[in-house]
Amino acid sequence: MQEKNTANFLLLILLWSMPMVLSAQRMPIPESLTMQDGLGFRDIKAIAQDSRGLMWIGTTQGIERYDGYRFVKYGSDRQATFRFPGESVSDENMLMVNDSNLWVLADEVLFELNLNTHNTTNLTAAAGLKGGVFTLRKGADGTIWIVTDDDREQVLLQYEGNYHFRQVATAQHLRMPFNDVAIDTTGNVWWSTNAEGLRHFSPNGALLHTVKPDSIDWFGTKIYYTNISTDSRGRLFVFPKSKNEIWHYHPETRQYDVLADNLSTKVYSHLEDTRGNIWFAMFDGLLRWSPSGEWTDFSATLHNSLQFTNIHHLYEDRTHLLWIATDNGLLRFPIARDIFQNHLTVPGAEWGNAMRGIFADNEGQVYALCENGQKGLHLLGKGQHKDRLLISFQDSLPLTVTMSYAINFIFDKTENVAWTLNDRLLKIHLNNHQCSIVEDFDGLFKKVLRNPICLLQDGKFLLGSELNKLTLYDTKRREYSPFFTGGTGSLPSTNSQVIFEDAHGLVWVGTISEGLYCFNRKGEELAHFTTKTKPALSKDHVLALHADKTGKLWVGTFGGGLCSIALPHDLSGLKNLTGLTLRVFTQKEGLSDNNVVSIHEDDEGNIWAGTYNGLSCYRVSEGVFRNFYEEDGLSSNEFNYASSMKDEQGGLWFGGMNGVNYFNPKDILQSEKNPALCLTGFTKYNSQMDSTLVQVIGNQAIGRFAISPYDSWFQFSWALPNYFKPDKNHYYVQLEGLEGDWSYLGNTPFVRYNKLPWGDYVLRVKGSDSKGNWSETELAIPITVQPFFYQRWWFYLLALGLVGGVGYSVARYRHHRLLEMERMRTRIASDLHDEVGSMLSGLSMQAELLEMNATETDRPRIEHIGDISRTAVSKMRDLVWSIDSRRDKVKNLLERMQEQATDLLQPQDISCHFLLGDLPLEKKLPVDMRQHLFLIFKEALNNVTRHSNATEVTVRFGNFDGRLEMSIHDNGDLPQKDRVSTGLGLSNMEMRAGKLGAKLEVERSAGFTILLTMKPL
């Protein structure tokens, strides 16, 4: 058994040593998070992530919440946003118990922080725990274990809920409260103590066995404590204190294997990530042990990003980002999958082997030209085959001159040769790896330019470094001729960057400063796109062209992003650019960078673009971008033009400033959903109180936010809990009820609104991370902007009631006044009739009596007095009638008119006929209207009796054809001059008609007619 263990040990050492030699691969570049970024204190002890994805950071000065942009401090000092009574959080001892509660071990006290209310509970006191709490652990099954120490004994306890802990075991206290707890996949608990070493308990607390794998002398006392951890395979790892090693302990044999030795310091923290890698943190270093047994040392790359002396905790968040808690801040980098194969990469170099042309031969072997670094043409290995140099620039002097500045390559299947162009046309024989000059072109081309070359469908080459010098070359006849047979015309001498022939046989030429041209095979210009045409390119410098399966043309520009041109079915519309749709994609739409140097389409129709800062994939079906960077396994973020290819198996090859990257799109386009967006803060300013309310949103469900009409502005803050390059996240907002479309905010994680109209709204927010992955769900925030008091329904009701009350009061007052007026009119009429009428009647009678006994001299005077008194009685009767409120109806007016006609016309032996129209007899008439109508009628009758020889009068009165008519017609035939009154009767009638708003007409044919018309009664 001992020999077997020794052999196993030697084998493990050998396996460990070999990968350490092979670990010189490209390391991810960690991002640091320090006090300069807003971190409250640099010494980080523990990390946790809540259900919303927000990060919780324990320090030696309290705890902090981090959302990718802002820190919220929980502590006992004045600068803290919320009070937290603990200060020094202990290493690794912070965990989420449920969606709302965070348990924190600080100052040897166990605290519970409610993430909804931000209130803290002292669990040590609430649970009645004795001594200090020194260890807090949570198993995969959700069980929670703690260890207490009261300077007499250590106690292992299991949490049973409702602030109750069950004691499982005790151990002797030795000098210091050192201990560690690990829970394996079966729920067994391992407890490392000072006095008894490593103890193994079943899930129900039964002791299974005890072992002392290591011991040290602690200031005269021998202790058996070691740090321990378990993984998903049930393995137990022991980190001894007497040696700088990592052990794998086998409980069934009570033996251990040494996995790593000669470490720089002891291991104090451990993490198994979701990829199956196991991470071991030393004081000042970090090791990764892959599932295949490969060891990688990340210590140097960590120190290049942040200077520190201790690592206290390792944590993996939901987006597979590794967080490293140090004594000088946080480090984080993604735990990437191996989705890219790197070729000719120089480890650790930003610019290593700069690559250009990439092509494949008949057998599928891939070749690439390195223009800087290991200069020459390389064969890229597949599978177990390594990359190897075929033709070196340093092989011979003539070859050096020949291969320099070659960029674009074409493979000819018929001869198994490759063609390229600098200032001469070169032919590379892949069978014997020889290169020859085919054509010199007499200085037509310049080797320092791009010199694009394109194989046309008829087998000829189209090549040229300048637009107006494009040349056709026939490889069979070895003849070249100008592409523009009719002359270059107005074509500029701009440098050509890329040449491409589409499925229609159209030739597209991208230039350095004049945009994009389209020609037919005769060299005739069909279209020209620039930044000034309609539709317009985003930039006039074109670097890459590609036509997809649908015939859409994709254009990569220098600084203007990616353009797509949907060509018309009728290509004749190209000349005036009609029927075309051009769309521009930039960083605003999710593209990784606006410099696009290469474009390809995968088998699923997705568009891949190599840029100066990452690789972008446009998911055509979804309309979104996904981006990839060095952290995902790319050899470099910067790609080169004329350095990409799609092979016959659908694999894509992209070359850049540090080698070539190969991948199968199907393998890497697995959807990676982000956590949902979470609301983190709400701020508003109240102008009435001149105060600003700042609210930190907890983990509770989002309720409706009420905005006072006196709130001048309000602001919502949110976070996408993906902490890899959060400064490159993208956000869009839409305020339902006000906006009909989404607004792009860029990387701004908040939005502010000023003076919104009152009403109900819903603020919707969606976001994507730096790679273009969208958040799992949108954020929906209900908002109610409250109206001013005078805009509320009850105010309208109150105002309506007030107006109604005032109106009722006014109407009631007017009614009473009218009643009083009517009573007064009735009283005056009665008094005039009874008193004055009686007196005038008496006066008239007395005049008649005096007239009987009067002398001839006095009789005329007495007759005159009698006439005056009778006239006064008549006038008074008219006046009494006009003011008597008991005679206000239409029928009273009609009766008075008939009575007056009888009194005036009958003594003159003139007959009178009334023709009545439609009359509302019971309708009350205003006093003025009744009086004016009657007096006009009376005056007309007086004119008949005084100035006419008529024998008949016809009165027409009533509503006829939608108007009131009152006409008085007599059949008199006196000459006109004899009919003219010397009085003011007609003028008075016109004056009264004007007051009524009526029209008065006089007709003198076939008798005499007075006609009054007005609006109907």
Task: Report on this structure.
Residues 1-25 have low confidence and may be disordered. Helix 6 (793-853) packs antiparallel against helix 7 (859-883), helix 8 packs parallel to helix 9 (927-947) and helix 9 packs antiparallel against helix 11 (985-996). 37% of the residues are buried. A hairpin with a 4-residue loop joins strand 4 (62-66) and strand 5 (71-75). The longest helix has 61 residues, at 793-853. The protein has 1017 residues and is an alpha+beta fold. Helix content is 18%, strand content 39%. Strands 2-3-4-5-6 form a five-stranded mixed β-sheet, with no helix packed on it. Strands 62-68-67-64-65 form a five-stranded mixed β-sheet, with no helix packed on it. A five-stranded mixed β-sheet has the order 69-70-71-73-72. The chain is built from eleven helices and 73 strands.
List the defining traits of the structure above.
single chain, 1017 residues, alpha+beta, five-stranded mixed sheet, 18% helix, 39% strand, disordered N terminus
